[in-house]
Structures
1.
Amino acid sequence: ILEEKCCGKLERITLPVFQPSTPDPAPASDQVQRLPSEGSGDAEKLKEPSTAQSHTPGDTSLSLALSLGQSTDSLGPYGDGDGAENQVQPKRPSLIDRQPSTVEYLPGMMHSACPKGLLPKFSSWSLLKLGSAKSYNCHTGLEQPSFLPGSSFLLPWDLVIRSRSEEDAGLMEPLDGGSSSWPAPNKSLVGKRGSAGGLGRGRRRDDMARVFVGFEYEDSRGRRFISSGPDKIVKALGPGGAKDPATRVLNTDMPLYVPSPSQGRGLKPHFAQLARLFIVVPDAPLEITLNPQVQPGPPPCPIFHPEQTEVVLPADGFWVLRFPYSYATERGPCFPPKENQPLSNYKVLRGILRATTANPVPQ
């Protein structure tokens, strides 16, 4: 309902969801067996084949999810031979390469322990483009409401761009004695020691790209802030923006819940939950790959991820990833931590962003 008023016209990266090919799609039957009975006729019908589940390829009573889930584990390689002959046979195609089901959907959300070949009816994640990279001003921060004072600044992430400057072109030419192997007379190489501008100052500006990253937390009262570490809030007092680099938040597991900086008068602690991830990708030969993985509870809690595990963010964009508010498997929700539970068990795994240069290989 609110999308038309706020973000309906924004560019987005659409995550794959279940696309039905029948008028009455149903949840995967082997998942329904784990759920409490809802008294619906469809659920009862789906439970009937469970009495004759065999792991033979020709058993038509298997649901698509169950047959896909066991195909690579039980059937193994092609062929009926034994010993070394089987080992050289190619294995069955990866489940990742197969088309997802159009008759059965995944109850719950995508996670590391759910059956392959299934998609949920809707995505609990959202990836929007708020504007170009220039639409974020590092001196003013995020111009959005409800942020704590000084805590709306994204963290800088400086990356080396290995572009072919004039110096690189001269050094990479083969020294075969030809005229192109040596610089012209009375012409100094760019960046050479002793030349104008010094060794690295001008070249460093050309070869560096600055990405901005922000892990945003929000508590139950709507207070928002960017975190500069697992236990630290961004606090920019001057006009220069945030000083802490983003490498700390990118190279560590970030908590899914942190104590709210504004505790109320009651004795019960208030938590702020990781709600959004902001990424400003500059207009540079650079590829930023997004790969969020969330473990919303102690083991054996599975790891949740979007329906597309890796998403490449195009250059020159101000992107925001909205995390799910709640995490649920086919067995039910993963509840937030209680007062006596350690928050370290609820986390976003490190490696959520990966950077690669998109420069072509020099000829």
Note: The longest strand covers residues 208-219.
2.
Amino acid sequence: QRLDGRQCYDYRNVRISFGTEYGCCIVELGETRVLAQVSCELVPPKLNRPTEGILFVNLELSPMAAPGLEPGRQSDLLVKLNRQIERCLRNSRCIDTESLCVVAGEKVWQIRLDMHLLNHDGNIIDAASIAGIVALCHFRRPDVSVQGEEVTVYTPEERDPVPLSIHHMPICVSFAFFQQGTYLLVDPSEREERVMDGLLVIAMNKHQEICTIDSSGGIVLVKDQVLRCSKITAVKVAEITELIQKALENDQKVRKEGGKFGFAESIPNQKITAFKMESAAVDTNNVEEQAEEIITKADPPSEVFANPILHTPGTAQIGEGIENSWGDLEESEREEAAEEEGEGDATAFECQKMETEDPSMMKETKTDEPIVLSDSEEEEVVILEPQELPKKTRAQTTLKQGSTSKKAFTKRRKKKRAA
């Protein structure tokens, strides 16, 4: 028994959805999702093969799929997956590259297959191989005509795009081995890949022709184990190939009939963001009569209070006479309010007591100390300037200074006469 409830030879559900353009698809293998996009351009051919087109395959891993994946870094896992997909699709000659030739030695079609891993839940190679072959089967290249040395590329409006010539559909099936090959699992998940001892990947088409075999890990497989895995692969490949053909036929049928297609239409309707409200017709005949009937049958309006109702200090109610509990204080709030009132009474009593005992002290504090107003949240400080000196004292000081200066002048004259 496996963690997700599958048996040893069970394959996870495969779901295929196509985009609005040709050559774009998403393949879901359980929770593993791969996005594939095919594009093409006219390029010069290779020197050693002047009459053959070029097929370029690229797989990208990003942290969006799993936290352990690093962006822009050629990890060992990424190099290994790209090599396996190239051997599965390009080396197996699944596409007729000679049909991609436009002018021998001058211009050929370069088909580029880009795949991105959207979510990683194990068995990336199987999901990528399915997504790659589905995108290639779904892709349509522009039609081309050659007149002398002139090459004309037609738009989809001028001529219908041309599908690629595909001989067969190779699909990879992975097997995980545990305890040196004692236990065998088909389509391992991400948790099972962490603890497996070895991995065997077999690429096969529905004609039971083996395209590639890749074994990794520290295990040694016996011939009977490889034959057993190849028989299981033949069954799984036949089922997946039939599923791919049905998906392609359904998409082509919808496009011809003019129905809705694309990723947005493939979202299940059970999701909240996919709900739609159909427009309903509104009958506007006899609107006034119906409104009068509704008003007459309705209950009379409740009593309206013109003046506000004060439930508790700081709250009021205006409008219809519906009871409101906003102003009701809880027990804890009532206790706090009572304590604040008691503290305020005590401080007021102390102030009165100070005034009766020593009025002179109160006067001094009023004149010398600053007055602090604490009514608002931001406290304002008012500082009183010191009083000016009376004019009498200033006159007295001037007279004293004048008398002292006269005395000093008379003393100096007496000394000069004596000399």
Note: The CA atoms of residues 367 and 384 lie 7 Å apart.
